[in-house]
Design a protein that fits this description.
Mean pLDDT: 96
Number of helices: 12
Strand content: 15-25%
Number of strands: 12
Distance between the termini: 27 Å
CATH class: Alpha Beta
Radius of gyration: 19 Å
Bound molecules: S-adenosylmethionine, iron/sulfur cluster
CATH architecture: Alpha-Beta Barrel
Strand order of the largest sheet: 7-8-9-6-5-4-3-2-1-10-11-12
CATH superfamily: Aldolase class I
Structural class: alpha/beta
CATH topology: TIM Barrel
């Protein structure tokens, strides 16, 4: 495998593939506004274009693809796309992050198409909190979606929970109990000041240290597990054997080992969650660039990569939300739901 390294020696291995910027929820930490600027439909990459780009990325060292969005299950015929990506030589891990609302309808087809792992975002077990957090009444469908995923054979299930002070932080122990009860591994995520999180405030972030304290008070001693890869979550274990993760992007950024990049549904490629500028791969695709030319553009951008966005944010004095709503309207590529979490 060719070794493509950025300025800090980080390889390109992990591609987050946003397949749509649309979503059926309106999570407070991601899409709290009433109105959004959507990507023009004609700009959204076709399945063939996506497959071609994934193959080019694979030729440069990418071996993990995570399908995301927006809500990926809103993309028409997603299983067909999954099958096409699964067939790309070199892609050994194919996973998806979803809010789970539509999993009951799609889990079996996704599994049959070659999707290997599913992560479901679940922030609360309380119907009222779910409604407040996402402006939709879909907790029962999300939980049923999780059951459907297990029935379809997704045994390696993960749950992602964004923890927000005063909103769902009191549920940290019960969410972990729930994850354990369904055989899933839960990852608690610190509330990040990404584009889209216009209501972000530092005092709403529940730090990894606080989460650990609360879990320890409830469950007893917690043991840190050794790190095995560049995954963002640090893993821990309760004395009963239950494992869980914490993604401490705000208080303990992990940019030093970041091998991830993000492709939006309209073919903009971003080297960091916080990057303002991306590389327009759609333009190359639609102007008849060869695979070698596209690979050359990707390789040049990755070699020049010096992004360490979360670390820079951590050094920002008087840290506020990243981008005001007006700039997100003008440039929807800054939105988390567009670039894919
Ligand atoms: N709609 C799908 C979902 O929610 O799972 C996939 C896309 S969503 C943008 C991907 C992940 O980003 C979710 O797990 C979500 O919790 C996370 N996310 C969005 N905004 C965030 C924020 N401000 N801080 C931390 N995580 C965030
Ligand atoms: Fe919530 Fe995911 Fe939709 Fe963002 S993209 S609003 S995190 S479900
Ligand atoms: Fe990677 Fe950027 Fe996130 Fe740091 S902030 S871990 S460089 S995506």
């Amino acid at each position: 495998m060719p070794s493509l390294l950025d300025r800090y020696g980080r390889p390109l291995r992990n591609l987050r593939l946003s397949v749509t910027d649309r979503c059926n929820l309106r999570c407070q930490y991601c899409m709290p506004e009433e109105e959004y600027t959507w990507l023009p439909k004609g700009n959204v990459l076709t399945f063939e274009e996506i497959q071609r780009l994934v193959a080019v990325f694979a030729s440069l060292g990418v071996d993990k693809v995570r399908v995301t969005g927006g809500e990926p299950l809103l993309r028409q015929d997603l299983p067909a796309l999954v099958r096409m990506i699964a067939n790309v030589p070199g892609i050994s891990e194919l996973a998806m992050t979803t809010n789970g609302v539509l999993l009951r309808e799609h889990a079996v087809a996704l599994r049959q198409a070659g999707m290997q792992r599913v992560t479901v975002s679940l922030d609360t077990l309380d119907a009222q909190t779910f409604r407040m957090l996402s402006r939709r009444d879909d907790l029962p469908r999300t939980l049923d979606g999780l059951a459907a995923a297990r029935e379809a054979g997704f045994t390696d299930l993960k749950l992602d929970t964004v923890v927000i002070a005063g909103l769902n932080d009191h549920e940290v122990p019960s969410l972990l109990d729930y994850a354990r009860s369904i055989g899933a591994e839960l990852r608690f995520i610190e509330y990040m000041d990404v584009g889209g999180a216009t209501q972000w405030r530092m005092d709403r972030v529940v730090s990894r240290a606080t989460m650990k304290e609360r879990l320890q008070a409830h469950f007893g001693p917690i043991r840190a597990l050794p790190r095995t890869d560049s995954a963002p979550a640090e893993r821990f274990q309760l004395s009963c054997g239950t494992t869980f993760g914490i993604i401490a992007s705000v208080t303990q950024p992990f940019c030093a080992s970041c091998d991830r990049a993000r492709l939006t549904a309209d073919g903009m490629w971003f080297l960091c969650l916080y990057a303002v500028k991306g590389t327009d791969l759609r333009e190359l695709l639609r102007n008849d660039a060869s695979d070698a030319e596209i690979a050359g553009a990707i390789a040049a951008a990755w070699r020049a990569r010096g992004d360490r966005g979360a670390e820079e944010r951590a050094r920002t004095p008087d840290r506020q939300a990243l981008a005001p709503q007006s700039s997100l309207r003008q440039n929807p590529h800054l939105e988390m739901h567009t670039r894919g979490g």
